[in-house]
Design brief:
Layout (H helix, E strand, L loop, with lengths): L3 E4 L4 E4 L7 E6 L10 H19 L3 E6 L6 H10 L3 H18 L15 H13 L3 E4 L2 E4 L15 H6 L15 E6 L14 E3 L3 H11 L3 E7 L3 H15 L7 E7 L2 E3 L2 E2 L10 H7 L2 H9 L7 E3 L1 H27 L9 H20 L4 H21 L5 H18 L9 H18 L3 H13 L2 E6 L2 E6 L2
Helix pairs in contact: 2-3, 4-6, 4-7, 6-7, 9-10, 10-12, 10-13, 11-12, 11-13, 12-13, 14-15
Length: about 475
Protein backbone atom coordinates (compact mmCIF):
# COMPACT_ATOMS: atom_id res chain seq x y z
CA UNK A 1 0.00 0.00 0.00
CA UNK A 2 1.08 3.61 -0.55
CA UNK A 3 1.74 5.92 2.38
CA UNK A 4 -1.35 7.43 4.00
CA UNK A 5 -1.17 10.08 6.72
CA UNK A 6 -3.82 11.44 9.08
CA UNK A 7 -4.09 15.07 8.04
CA UNK A 8 -5.23 17.27 10.91
CA UNK A 9 -6.38 19.87 8.40
CA UNK A 10 -9.07 17.51 7.06
CA UNK A 11 -9.27 15.19 10.11
CA UNK A 12 -8.95 12.10 7.93
CA UNK A 13 -6.36 9.77 6.45
CA UNK A 14 -5.15 10.80 3.03
CA UNK A 15 -2.75 9.29 0.53
CA UNK A 16 0.53 11.15 0.69
CA UNK A 17 1.23 12.83 -2.64
CA UNK A 18 4.25 15.17 -2.52
CA UNK A 19 4.23 18.54 -4.27
CA UNK A 20 7.24 17.51 -6.35
CA UNK A 21 7.54 13.81 -7.28
CA UNK A 22 10.27 12.08 -5.30
CA UNK A 23 10.86 15.06 -3.00
CA UNK A 24 9.46 15.95 0.44
CA UNK A 25 9.58 19.33 2.14
CA UNK A 26 9.21 18.72 5.88
CA UNK A 27 9.12 21.34 8.65
CA UNK A 28 9.00 20.35 12.31
CA UNK A 29 8.77 22.76 15.24
CA UNK A 30 11.92 22.74 17.34
CA UNK A 31 12.65 23.80 20.92
CA UNK A 32 12.71 27.16 22.63
CA UNK A 33 16.26 27.03 23.95
CA UNK A 34 15.92 28.52 27.43
CA UNK A 35 16.43 25.17 29.22
CA UNK A 36 16.85 21.45 28.61
CA UNK A 37 13.92 20.13 26.58
CA UNK A 38 11.42 18.08 28.55
CA UNK A 39 10.50 14.46 28.02
CA UNK A 40 7.19 15.48 26.42
CA UNK A 41 9.13 17.37 23.71
CA UNK A 42 11.19 14.25 23.11
CA UNK A 43 8.12 12.50 21.72
CA UNK A 44 7.62 14.65 18.60
CA UNK A 45 11.38 14.83 18.04
CA UNK A 46 11.55 11.00 18.03
CA UNK A 47 8.33 10.07 16.20
CA UNK A 48 8.83 12.56 13.38
CA UNK A 49 12.47 11.49 13.13
CA UNK A 50 11.08 8.04 12.31
CA UNK A 51 8.68 9.43 9.71
CA UNK A 52 11.61 11.23 8.10
CA UNK A 53 13.64 7.99 8.13
CA UNK A 54 10.75 6.06 6.60
CA UNK A 55 10.30 8.59 3.80
CA UNK A 56 14.03 8.37 3.07
CA UNK A 57 13.87 4.57 3.17
CA UNK A 58 11.07 4.70 0.61
CA UNK A 59 13.33 6.64 -1.73
CA UNK A 60 12.18 10.22 -1.19
CA UNK A 61 14.67 13.06 -1.17
CA UNK A 62 13.63 14.68 2.12
CA UNK A 63 14.57 18.22 3.10
CA UNK A 64 13.96 18.38 6.85
CA UNK A 65 13.96 21.74 8.62
CA UNK A 66 13.65 22.16 12.40
CA UNK A 67 14.02 25.59 13.97
CA UNK A 68 15.47 26.89 17.21
CA UNK A 69 13.43 29.62 18.91
CA UNK A 70 16.26 31.68 20.38
CA UNK A 71 14.38 34.83 21.40
CA UNK A 72 11.22 34.97 23.56
CA UNK A 73 10.01 36.11 26.99
CA UNK A 74 11.26 32.99 28.82
CA UNK A 75 14.72 33.37 27.34
CA UNK A 76 14.92 37.06 28.22
CA UNK A 77 13.79 36.36 31.80
CA UNK A 78 16.32 33.58 32.35
CA UNK A 79 19.18 35.48 30.74
CA UNK A 80 18.50 38.44 33.03
CA UNK A 81 18.33 36.11 36.02
CA UNK A 82 21.73 34.57 35.15
CA UNK A 83 23.21 37.94 34.15
CA UNK A 84 24.18 36.70 30.67
CA UNK A 85 23.05 37.65 27.18
CA UNK A 86 20.13 35.91 25.49
CA UNK A 87 22.57 34.83 22.78
CA UNK A 88 24.85 33.17 25.36
CA UNK A 89 21.86 31.36 26.86
CA UNK A 90 20.73 30.19 23.43
CA UNK A 91 24.18 28.96 22.47
CA UNK A 92 24.43 26.92 25.68
CA UNK A 93 21.05 25.21 25.32
CA UNK A 94 21.33 24.60 21.57
CA UNK A 95 24.47 22.62 22.39
CA UNK A 96 22.65 20.80 25.21
CA UNK A 97 19.73 20.05 22.89
CA UNK A 98 22.07 18.51 20.35
CA UNK A 99 23.71 16.34 23.03
CA UNK A 100 20.37 14.94 24.22
CA UNK A 101 18.92 14.57 20.71
CA UNK A 102 22.05 12.73 19.57
CA UNK A 103 21.78 10.40 22.59
CA UNK A 104 18.18 9.62 21.60
CA UNK A 105 19.24 8.74 18.06
CA UNK A 106 17.48 11.76 16.52
CA UNK A 107 19.06 12.66 13.19
CA UNK A 108 20.24 16.24 12.82
CA UNK A 109 17.99 18.35 10.57
CA UNK A 110 19.16 19.36 7.13
CA UNK A 111 18.65 22.96 8.21
CA UNK A 112 18.39 24.18 11.83
CA UNK A 113 17.61 27.90 11.49
CA UNK A 114 17.57 30.31 14.43
CA UNK A 115 15.04 33.12 14.68
CA UNK A 116 17.63 35.78 15.47
CA UNK A 117 19.58 34.94 12.32
CA UNK A 118 16.50 35.54 10.13
CA UNK A 119 15.30 38.96 11.30
CA UNK A 120 15.30 40.41 7.77
CA UNK A 121 13.22 37.48 6.45
CA UNK A 122 10.81 37.99 9.35
CA UNK A 123 10.53 41.74 8.63
CA UNK A 124 9.94 41.03 4.93
CA UNK A 125 7.19 38.52 5.76
CA UNK A 126 5.44 40.97 8.10
CA UNK A 127 5.70 43.74 5.48
CA UNK A 128 3.93 41.52 2.92
CA UNK A 129 1.15 40.71 5.40
CA UNK A 130 0.60 44.45 6.06
CA UNK A 131 0.66 45.22 2.33
CA UNK A 132 -1.95 42.51 1.72
CA UNK A 133 -4.26 44.09 4.32
CA UNK A 134 -4.01 41.48 7.07
CA UNK A 135 -1.89 43.22 9.72
CA UNK A 136 -1.58 46.64 11.29
CA UNK A 137 0.99 48.65 13.24
CA UNK A 138 0.09 50.01 16.68
CA UNK A 139 2.65 52.16 18.52
CA UNK A 140 5.60 50.07 17.37
CA UNK A 141 3.84 46.71 17.69
CA UNK A 142 2.49 44.87 14.65
CA UNK A 143 -0.56 42.61 14.98
CA UNK A 144 -2.19 40.12 12.66
CA UNK A 145 -5.80 41.13 11.98
CA UNK A 146 -7.63 37.86 12.60
CA UNK A 147 -11.03 39.22 11.51
CA UNK A 148 -9.52 39.97 8.08
CA UNK A 149 -8.76 36.28 7.57
CA UNK A 150 -11.98 34.26 7.02
CA UNK A 151 -10.14 30.92 7.14
CA UNK A 152 -8.87 31.48 10.71
CA UNK A 153 -9.79 28.46 12.86
CA UNK A 154 -9.69 26.02 9.91
CA UNK A 155 -6.89 23.91 11.41
CA UNK A 156 -8.14 23.78 15.01
CA UNK A 157 -11.75 23.41 13.77
CA UNK A 158 -13.17 26.27 15.87
CA UNK A 159 -15.14 29.33 14.81
CA UNK A 160 -14.19 32.88 15.75
CA UNK A 161 -16.97 33.23 18.32
CA UNK A 162 -15.73 30.21 20.30
CA UNK A 163 -12.12 31.35 20.07
CA UNK A 164 -13.03 34.89 21.06
CA UNK A 165 -14.69 33.75 24.29
CA UNK A 166 -11.32 32.53 25.59
CA UNK A 167 -9.20 35.37 24.22
CA UNK A 168 -8.01 38.39 26.19
CA UNK A 169 -5.87 41.46 25.89
CA UNK A 170 -2.76 41.34 28.06
CA UNK A 171 -1.69 44.48 29.95
CA UNK A 172 0.34 46.76 27.69
CA UNK A 173 -1.01 45.28 24.44
CA UNK A 174 -2.38 47.74 21.89
CA UNK A 175 -4.38 45.50 19.58
CA UNK A 176 -7.82 46.02 18.07
CA UNK A 177 -9.25 42.61 18.90
CA UNK A 178 -8.47 40.04 21.63
CA UNK A 179 -7.79 37.38 18.97
CA UNK A 180 -5.19 39.45 17.11
CA UNK A 181 -1.65 38.21 17.73
CA UNK A 182 1.75 39.90 17.68
CA UNK A 183 3.97 39.68 14.63
CA UNK A 184 6.42 42.29 15.94
CA UNK A 185 6.90 43.58 19.49
CA UNK A 186 8.13 47.10 20.19
CA UNK A 187 11.38 47.44 22.10
CA UNK A 188 11.28 47.28 25.89
CA UNK A 189 14.11 48.36 28.20
CA UNK A 190 16.74 45.65 28.68
CA UNK A 191 15.50 43.44 25.85
CA UNK A 192 17.33 42.52 22.63
CA UNK A 193 15.96 44.49 19.69
CA UNK A 194 16.45 45.03 15.97
CA UNK A 195 15.70 47.92 13.61
CA UNK A 196 12.48 47.61 11.60
CA UNK A 197 10.10 49.83 9.59
CA UNK A 198 7.97 50.06 12.78
CA UNK A 199 10.80 51.00 15.10
CA UNK A 200 13.20 48.90 17.14
CA UNK A 201 11.76 45.64 18.45
CA UNK A 202 11.77 41.87 18.16
CA UNK A 203 9.67 39.22 16.42
CA UNK A 204 6.62 37.56 17.94
CA UNK A 205 6.75 33.80 18.45
CA UNK A 206 4.71 32.51 15.52
CA UNK A 207 6.18 34.58 12.68
CA UNK A 208 9.65 33.01 12.81
CA UNK A 209 8.40 29.62 11.56
CA UNK A 210 6.57 31.19 8.63
CA UNK A 211 9.61 33.22 7.58
CA UNK A 212 12.10 30.38 7.94
CA UNK A 213 9.96 27.61 6.42
CA UNK A 214 9.25 29.74 3.33
CA UNK A 215 12.94 30.59 2.96
CA UNK A 216 14.14 26.99 3.04
CA UNK A 217 11.12 25.05 1.77
CA UNK A 218 8.96 27.48 -0.20
CA UNK A 219 5.51 28.96 0.37
CA UNK A 220 3.74 25.60 -0.02
CA UNK A 221 5.26 22.67 1.90
CA UNK A 222 4.39 19.00 2.13
CA UNK A 223 4.48 18.23 5.86
CA UNK A 224 4.47 20.29 9.04
CA UNK A 225 4.62 18.48 12.38
CA UNK A 226 4.63 19.12 16.11
CA UNK A 227 2.91 18.27 19.37
CA UNK A 228 -0.88 18.53 19.58
CA UNK A 229 -0.47 21.42 22.03
CA UNK A 230 0.94 23.50 19.15
CA UNK A 231 -2.14 23.12 16.94
CA UNK A 232 -3.66 26.21 18.54
CA UNK A 233 -2.57 28.91 18.62
CA UNK A 234 0.89 28.36 17.12
CA UNK A 235 0.10 26.33 14.01
CA UNK A 236 -3.22 28.08 13.41
CA UNK A 237 -1.40 31.41 13.47
CA UNK A 238 1.42 30.08 11.30
CA UNK A 239 -1.05 28.96 8.64
CA UNK A 240 -2.93 32.26 8.66
CA UNK A 241 0.09 34.55 8.51
CA UNK A 242 1.95 32.39 5.96
CA UNK A 243 -0.95 32.35 3.53
CA UNK A 244 -1.66 36.05 4.18
CA UNK A 245 1.96 36.85 3.25
CA UNK A 246 1.74 34.86 0.02
CA UNK A 247 0.02 35.88 -3.18
CA UNK A 248 0.16 32.34 -4.58
CA UNK A 249 -3.24 31.24 -3.30
CA UNK A 250 -1.71 27.91 -2.30
CA UNK A 251 -2.07 26.39 1.19
CA UNK A 252 0.86 26.86 3.56
CA UNK A 253 0.96 23.12 4.38
CA UNK A 254 -0.58 20.12 2.63
CA UNK A 255 -0.33 17.65 5.55
CA UNK A 256 -0.48 18.77 9.19
CA UNK A 257 0.65 16.08 11.67
CA UNK A 258 0.43 16.25 15.47
CA UNK A 259 1.45 13.71 18.09
CA UNK A 260 -0.59 13.04 21.24
CA UNK A 261 0.32 14.13 24.75
CA UNK A 262 2.83 12.33 26.90
CA UNK A 263 1.34 11.69 30.36
CA UNK A 264 3.28 11.08 33.56
CA UNK A 265 1.50 8.47 35.69
CA UNK A 266 -1.71 9.26 33.75
CA UNK A 267 -1.43 13.02 34.42
CA UNK A 268 -0.51 15.72 31.93
CA UNK A 269 3.03 16.82 32.71
CA UNK A 270 3.29 20.19 34.45
CA UNK A 271 5.61 21.89 36.90
CA UNK A 272 2.66 22.69 39.20
CA UNK A 273 1.94 18.94 39.59
CA UNK A 274 5.59 18.22 40.34
CA UNK A 275 5.79 15.61 37.55
CA UNK A 276 7.95 17.64 35.17
CA UNK A 277 10.98 15.77 33.78
CA UNK A 278 13.63 16.89 31.33
CA UNK A 279 14.99 14.56 28.68
CA UNK A 280 18.40 15.00 30.32
CA UNK A 281 17.05 13.66 33.64
CA UNK A 282 15.35 10.75 31.84
CA UNK A 283 18.58 9.91 30.00
CA UNK A 284 20.44 9.77 33.31
CA UNK A 285 17.89 7.27 34.59
CA UNK A 286 17.00 5.17 31.53
CA UNK A 287 18.74 3.68 28.49
CA UNK A 288 18.28 6.08 25.54
CA UNK A 289 17.28 3.15 23.31
CA UNK A 290 14.57 2.25 25.83
CA UNK A 291 13.29 5.84 25.83
CA UNK A 292 13.13 5.77 22.06
CA UNK A 293 11.45 2.32 22.07
CA UNK A 294 8.88 3.59 24.58
CA UNK A 295 8.00 6.64 22.46
CA UNK A 296 7.43 4.42 19.43
CA UNK A 297 5.48 1.72 21.27
CA UNK A 298 2.16 3.55 20.87
CA UNK A 299 0.66 5.15 17.78
CA UNK A 300 1.98 8.69 17.53
CA UNK A 301 -1.48 10.31 17.63
CA UNK A 302 -2.47 8.49 20.84
CA UNK A 303 -1.57 9.73 24.32
CA UNK A 304 1.18 7.69 25.95
CA UNK A 305 1.70 7.12 29.67
CA UNK A 306 5.25 7.44 31.04
CA UNK A 307 5.70 5.22 34.12
CA UNK A 308 8.64 3.29 35.60
CA UNK A 309 6.88 0.07 34.61
CA UNK A 310 6.47 1.15 31.00
CA UNK A 311 10.16 2.06 30.80
CA UNK A 312 11.14 -1.31 32.32
CA UNK A 313 9.07 -3.02 29.62
CA UNK A 314 10.76 -0.88 26.98
CA UNK A 315 14.21 -1.81 28.35
CA UNK A 316 13.25 -5.50 28.20
CA UNK A 317 12.13 -5.05 24.61
CA UNK A 318 15.39 -3.39 23.64
CA UNK A 319 17.41 -6.12 25.37
CA UNK A 320 15.51 -8.81 23.50
CA UNK A 321 16.32 -7.12 20.20
CA UNK A 322 19.97 -6.59 21.08
CA UNK A 323 20.33 -10.15 22.40
CA UNK A 324 19.00 -11.48 19.09
CA UNK A 325 21.59 -9.50 17.15
CA UNK A 326 24.33 -10.53 19.58
CA UNK A 327 23.34 -14.23 19.37
CA UNK A 328 23.30 -13.94 15.60
CA UNK A 329 26.84 -12.52 15.54
CA UNK A 330 28.09 -15.22 17.92
CA UNK A 331 26.53 -18.02 15.88
CA UNK A 332 27.88 -16.53 12.64
CA UNK A 333 31.40 -16.92 14.04
CA UNK A 334 30.92 -20.48 15.28
CA UNK A 335 28.05 -22.29 13.54
CA UNK A 336 28.34 -21.65 9.79
CA UNK A 337 28.07 -24.71 7.58
CA UNK A 338 27.06 -24.11 3.98
CA UNK A 339 26.21 -27.80 3.54
CA UNK A 340 23.51 -27.47 6.21
CA UNK A 341 20.10 -28.70 5.07
CA UNK A 342 18.39 -25.57 6.45
CA UNK A 343 15.83 -24.25 3.92
CA UNK A 344 17.11 -20.74 3.18
CA UNK A 345 14.45 -20.11 0.51
CA UNK A 346 11.66 -20.76 2.99
CA UNK A 347 13.38 -18.54 5.57
CA UNK A 348 13.78 -15.75 3.00
CA UNK A 349 10.11 -16.06 1.99
CA UNK A 350 9.03 -15.64 5.63
CA UNK A 351 11.29 -12.61 6.05
CA UNK A 352 9.84 -11.03 2.90
CA UNK A 353 6.32 -11.66 4.17
CA UNK A 354 7.16 -9.94 7.47
CA UNK A 355 8.82 -7.11 5.55
CA UNK A 356 5.62 -6.53 3.55
CA UNK A 357 3.62 -6.39 6.79
CA UNK A 358 6.18 -4.01 8.31
CA UNK A 359 5.89 -1.73 5.29
CA UNK A 360 2.07 -1.85 5.45
CA UNK A 361 2.21 -0.80 9.12
CA UNK A 362 4.56 2.10 8.40
CA UNK A 363 2.50 3.20 5.40
CA UNK A 364 -0.67 3.17 7.50
CA UNK A 365 -0.10 6.60 9.10
CA UNK A 366 3.36 5.36 10.19
CA UNK A 367 2.06 2.97 12.83
CA UNK A 368 5.31 2.29 14.67
CA UNK A 369 3.57 0.23 17.37
CA UNK A 370 2.44 -2.32 14.78
CA UNK A 371 5.83 -2.17 13.04
CA UNK A 372 7.62 -3.03 16.29
CA UNK A 373 5.28 -6.02 16.67
CA UNK A 374 6.38 -7.24 13.24
CA UNK A 375 10.02 -6.74 14.21
CA UNK A 376 9.51 -9.07 17.19
CA UNK A 377 7.97 -11.64 14.85
CA UNK A 378 11.20 -11.50 12.86
CA UNK A 379 13.23 -11.88 16.07
CA UNK A 380 11.16 -14.92 17.05
CA UNK A 381 11.78 -16.50 13.64
CA UNK A 382 15.55 -15.91 13.91
CA UNK A 383 15.75 -17.15 17.50
CA UNK A 384 13.77 -20.30 16.66
CA UNK A 385 16.06 -21.02 13.71
CA UNK A 386 19.14 -20.61 15.93
CA UNK A 387 17.65 -22.83 18.62
CA UNK A 388 16.57 -25.65 16.32
CA UNK A 389 19.67 -25.88 14.11
CA UNK A 390 23.20 -26.76 15.26
CA UNK A 391 24.65 -25.37 12.03
CA UNK A 392 23.27 -22.87 9.54
CA UNK A 393 24.36 -21.70 6.07
CA UNK A 394 26.11 -18.34 5.73
CA UNK A 395 23.18 -17.03 3.69
CA UNK A 396 20.93 -17.39 6.76
CA UNK A 397 23.14 -14.99 8.72
CA UNK A 398 23.39 -12.51 5.87
CA UNK A 399 19.61 -12.39 5.43
CA UNK A 400 18.81 -12.23 9.14
CA UNK A 401 21.25 -9.44 9.83
CA UNK A 402 20.26 -7.52 6.70
CA UNK A 403 16.62 -7.33 7.81
CA UNK A 404 17.40 -6.52 11.45
CA UNK A 405 19.72 -3.68 10.48
CA UNK A 406 17.24 -2.35 7.92
CA UNK A 407 14.50 -2.16 10.57
CA UNK A 408 16.90 -0.55 13.01
CA UNK A 409 17.89 2.05 10.42
CA UNK A 410 14.22 3.07 10.36
CA UNK A 411 13.23 2.72 14.03
CA UNK A 412 16.61 3.20 15.70
CA UNK A 413 15.86 0.95 18.70
CA UNK A 414 18.59 -1.73 18.51
CA UNK A 415 21.79 0.25 18.20
CA UNK A 416 25.26 -0.96 17.30
CA UNK A 417 25.91 -4.02 19.45
CA UNK A 418 29.49 -4.42 18.25
CA UNK A 419 30.57 -0.91 19.23
CA UNK A 420 29.00 -1.05 22.69
CA UNK A 421 31.83 -0.08 25.08
CA UNK A 422 30.28 -2.18 27.83
CA UNK A 423 30.40 -5.19 25.49
CA UNK A 424 34.18 -4.86 25.26
CA UNK A 425 34.41 -4.98 29.06
CA UNK A 426 32.08 -7.97 29.26
CA UNK A 427 34.03 -9.86 26.60
CA UNK A 428 37.28 -9.16 28.46
CA UNK A 429 35.78 -10.60 31.68
CA UNK A 430 34.54 -13.68 29.79
CA UNK A 431 38.01 -14.20 28.36
CA UNK A 432 39.48 -13.91 31.86
CA UNK A 433 36.91 -16.42 33.11
CA UNK A 434 37.82 -18.84 30.30
CA UNK A 435 41.49 -18.65 31.29
CA UNK A 436 40.57 -19.12 34.97
CA UNK A 437 38.62 -22.28 34.13
CA UNK A 438 41.52 -23.65 32.09
CA UNK A 439 43.78 -23.00 35.10
CA UNK A 440 41.17 -24.71 37.35
CA UNK A 441 40.74 -21.44 39.27
CA UNK A 442 37.04 -22.08 39.75
CA UNK A 443 36.71 -19.53 42.54
CA UNK A 444 37.67 -16.70 40.13
CA UNK A 445 35.52 -18.23 37.39
CA UNK A 446 32.47 -18.23 39.69
CA UNK A 447 33.30 -14.74 40.92
CA UNK A 448 33.23 -13.38 37.36
CA UNK A 449 29.97 -15.20 36.57
CA UNK A 450 28.35 -13.76 39.72
CA UNK A 451 29.69 -10.27 38.96
CA UNK A 452 28.21 -10.33 35.48
CA UNK A 453 24.93 -11.78 36.75
CA UNK A 454 24.64 -8.90 39.24
CA UNK A 455 24.84 -6.58 36.22
CA UNK A 456 22.10 -8.47 34.37
CA UNK A 457 24.46 -10.47 32.13
CA UNK A 458 23.71 -14.17 31.69
CA UNK A 459 26.49 -16.51 30.50
CA UNK A 460 25.92 -19.65 28.45
CA UNK A 461 28.75 -22.13 27.92
CA UNK A 462 28.48 -23.80 24.51
CA UNK A 463 30.78 -26.17 22.56
CA UNK A 464 31.75 -23.13 20.48
CA UNK A 465 32.66 -21.06 23.54
CA UNK A 466 30.90 -18.83 26.08
CA UNK A 467 28.27 -16.44 24.85
CA UNK A 468 26.40 -13.85 26.86
CA UNK A 469 23.12 -12.05 26.77
CA UNK A 470 21.37 -9.43 28.84
CA UNK A 471 18.73 -10.59 31.27
CA UNK A 472 15.21 -9.73 30.16
Amino acid sequence: MSLVLFNDLTRKKEEFIPIKPGQVSFYSCGPTVYDYFHIGNARPFIVFDVLRRWLEHEGYNVKFVQNFTDIDDKMIHRAHKENITVQELAERFINEYNKDADSLGIKRPDVAPRATEHIQEIINTISRIIANGHAYESNGDVYFDVKSWPKYGTLCKQNLEDLESGARVEPGEKKRDPLDFALWKAEKPGEPSWESPWGKGRPGWHIECSAMSSKYLGENIDIHSGGVDLMFPHHENEAAQSEAASNSGKPFVNYWLHNGFLLIDSEKMSKSLGNFMTARAALEKYNPLALRFFMLSAHYRSPINFTPESLEQAESGVMRLRNCLSDLDFAAENRVNDSSNFDVKEFDAKLKDFHAKFADSMNDDFNTAAAIGILFDVVHLINTSLKENETLPSEFFKLAKKYLLEYDNILGIIGDVESDSESDEINALIQERTQARKAKNFARSDEIRDLLKSRGIILEDTPQGTKWKREI
